[in-house]
């Protein structure tokens, strides 16, 4: 699969993708937005605590019927534990790729995004007219070396 991020000339970067992720792409996109532009040590710490449900993730989009969180200064947020765990797995994969190609220890998350990948129709059995879609997502993370 191709990356949506366009690499600049002469910049050393490591990347990782996750395909057919069984999670809400809306939650994944907000978790990715929260780590975008951060150093990997801070991003891993944020995802570890979000995975345990200790801190909420700010939802700037997809926040209808979403409660306000005191930790976020009264702004809307949720506790997406599953999404934080999946993004952390892909981030650790990108960190391993960076170590493998010889990048330094000072890395920053240059690009993190999640998109809807596939939609599979699910139909109830026994002639019931019930239908619900099963959606999968695609994750991608790009790490760049700090200068």
Automatic annotation (TrEMBL):
Quaternary structure, from the entry: Part of the 50S ribosomal subunit.
Any one GO molecular-function label of the UniProt entry: rRNA binding
Name this protein carries in UniProt: 50S ribosomal protein L22
KW Ribonucleoprotein (keyword) present: yes
PANTHER family: 60S RIBOSOMAL PROTEIN L17
Annotated family: Belongs to the universal ribosomal protein uL22 family.
Primary role: This protein binds specifically to 23S rRNA. It makes multiple contacts with different domains of the 23S rRNA in the assembled 50S subunit and ribosome.
Superkingdom of origin organism: Archaea
InterPro entries reported for this sequence: Ribosomal_uL22, Ribosomal_uL22_euk/arc, Ribosomal_uL22_sf
Pfam families: Ribosomal_L22
A GO CC annotation given for this chain: cytosolic large ribosomal subunit
Any one GO BP annotation for this protein: cytoplasmic translation
Organism per entry: Fermentimicrarchaeum limneticum
Entries under Gene3D superfamilies matching the protein: Ribosomal protein L22/L17
Keywords recorded for this protein, A-Z: Ribonucleoprotein, Ribosomal protein, RNA-binding, rRNA-binding
């Amino acid at each position: 699969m191709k990356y949506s991020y366009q690499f600049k000339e002469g910049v050393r970067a490591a990347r990782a993708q996750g395909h057919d992720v069984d999670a809400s792409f809306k939650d994944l996109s907000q978790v990715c937005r929260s780590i975008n532009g951060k150093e990997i040590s801070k991003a891993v710490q944020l995802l570890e605590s979000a995975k345990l449900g200790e801190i909420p993730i700010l939802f700037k989009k997809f926040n209808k019927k979403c409660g306000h969180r005191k930790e976020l200064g009264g702004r809307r947020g949720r506790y997406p534990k599953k999404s934080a765990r999946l993004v952390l797995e892909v981030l650790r994969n990108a960190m391993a790729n960076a170590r493998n190609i010889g990048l330094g220890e000072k890395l920053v998350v240059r690009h993190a995004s999640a998109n809807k990948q596939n939609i599979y129709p699910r139909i109830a059995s026994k002639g019931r007219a019930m239908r619900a879609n099963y959606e999968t997502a695609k994750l991608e993370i790009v790490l760049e070396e700090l200068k």
